[in-house]
Amino acid sequence: MRIDLHTHSTASDGTDTPAELVRNAAAAGLDVVALTDHDTVRGHAEAVAALPDGLTLVTGAELSCRLDGVGLHMLAYLFDPDEPELARERELVRDDRVPRARTMVGKLQELGVPVEWERVASIAGDGSVGRPHIATALVELGVVETVSDAFTPQWLADGGRAYAEKHELDPFDAIRLVKAAGGVTVFAHPAAVKRGRVLPESSIARLAAAGLDGIEVDHMDHDGPTRARLRDLARELGLLTTGSSDYHGNRKTVGIGEYTTDPEIYGEITRRATGAFPVPGAGGLRTA
């Protein structure tokens, strides 16, 4: 089985619609794909409706968190999307995205970059506006060569010259809320130093003690030695290890299915989940 547990659609900051994403996943030879848009489940229904035979969809979200001043992303899988407390927190994060993005556009303008809010909003479309949309505008203007190049201290990285904060979950609260909604939590790209500051291993140990299920190891932002170190850490802490593309369509160079998760790990994730079930073929989402 080929399993990719981290992808994004136009419901947040990807360039594929949810329907296009599942079709592209099937065309790439995937057996399982997770749709994990930022702080939203809005793309799930469209993905389910378009799901090709032979492809299984794992519903999820990537939750924006912050601990000790460090931003991090928590992948949440197979939770009940209607659980009210978790739904309320996702809404708070989404509602804060527009004023935060406007603030970053203003900071860029103060730095002499002729970026316009109207263009950023147009790039975002119906998705949850975020830094990748601003980064795309910077690529269009020739300020940076790629979207990834915008995520540096010079521009949009955490603490960067044009960075602005938004409402973010405490990751310990995120773990608690996802578990209460029957879901499973995996710390996304925990050692992606090119994105900015990362949590020390002692903090990952604290998260593990609080119920974190796993860490994302095989990711484009982790080199070989980093992956080896994370695997050792996962063994020490009793955490699952996943691999994922973090696919954003043509907004990033990584292809869907470029990094994958071991089938046994996937099986353990589905065993632990009680809030929702993977959706096979053209079926519909069933909540537990």
The rounded distance between the terminal residues' Cα atoms is 25 Å
Number of helices: 10
Segments where pLDDT lies below 50 for 5+ residues? Answer: 283-288
The rough form would be described as: globular
> What is the string of helix and strand elements?
EHEHEEHHHHHEHEHEHE
Mean pLDDT: 95
* Number of beta-strand segments: 8
Estimate what percentage of residues fall within beta strands: 15-25%
Structural class category: alpha/beta
Residue share in helices? 25-40%
Radius of gyration: 18 Å
Biggest β-sheet: count, sense, barrel?
8 strands, mixed
Task: Kindly list the characteristics that best describe this protein.
288 residues; alpha/beta; eight-stranded mixed beta sheet; 8 strands; disordered C terminus
Quick summary of this structure?
By secondary structure, this protein is α/β, with parallel strands linked by helices.
What does this structure look like?
It is built from ten helices and eight strands. With 288 residues, it is α/β, with parallel strands linked by helices. Strands 1, 2, 3, 4, 5, 6, 7 and 8 form an eight-stranded mixed beta sheet that branches. Strand 5, helix 8 and strand 6 form a beta-alpha-beta unit. The protein is globular, with a radius of gyration of 18 Å. The C terminus is likely disordered.
